Amino acid sequence: MLVLLAFIIIFHITSAALLFVATIDNAWWVGDNFSVDVWRVCRNNSNCTEINESFSDYATLQAVQASMILSTILCCIAFFIFLLQLFRLKQGERFVLTSIIQLMSCLCVMIGASIYTDRRQDFHSINMVKYYDYGMEEGRYGSSFILAWVAFAFTFTSGLMYLVLRKRK
Description:
Blueprint: H1 2-24, E1 29-30, E2 34-36, E3 40-43, E4 47-50, H2 58-88, H3 96-126, H4 128-131, E5 140-141, H5 143-164
Antiparallel strand pairs: 1-2, 1-5, 2-3, 3-4
Helix pairs in contact: 1-2, 1-5, 2-3, 3-5
């Protein structure tokens, strides 16, 4: 039982770490001389422009920002509630509250990554003037974007594990 508990804790911490990296790192869309995330556009990793309200369709990127931040916060809250429930639940009860919050985190990361997947091309083509000559059309999805989808799978699996898990002695 302790091995299973340790695995679940490590799995949850890994999920939270993936969410933090995916939200913060500047690699959602990358190319040879540029990188873009949901916060800024960088050329040669030194000349960075913050994405703000002067960009067209900025509300779309704000939705991605908000959902990624919310998913990270919910994942951390779920972990703390799990620790509280671990010591407060009676034997035989399930970690339903932890599961619900973790699945909400899963939903938020799915929404954020889905919006970015759908609207990325439109957002970059509309704002090409602001990017100067970055060559955005020759880019590819970066590591942070991939980590966001991996975090989706991890939080979903973790949420299901909590739903099935019963407190035992």
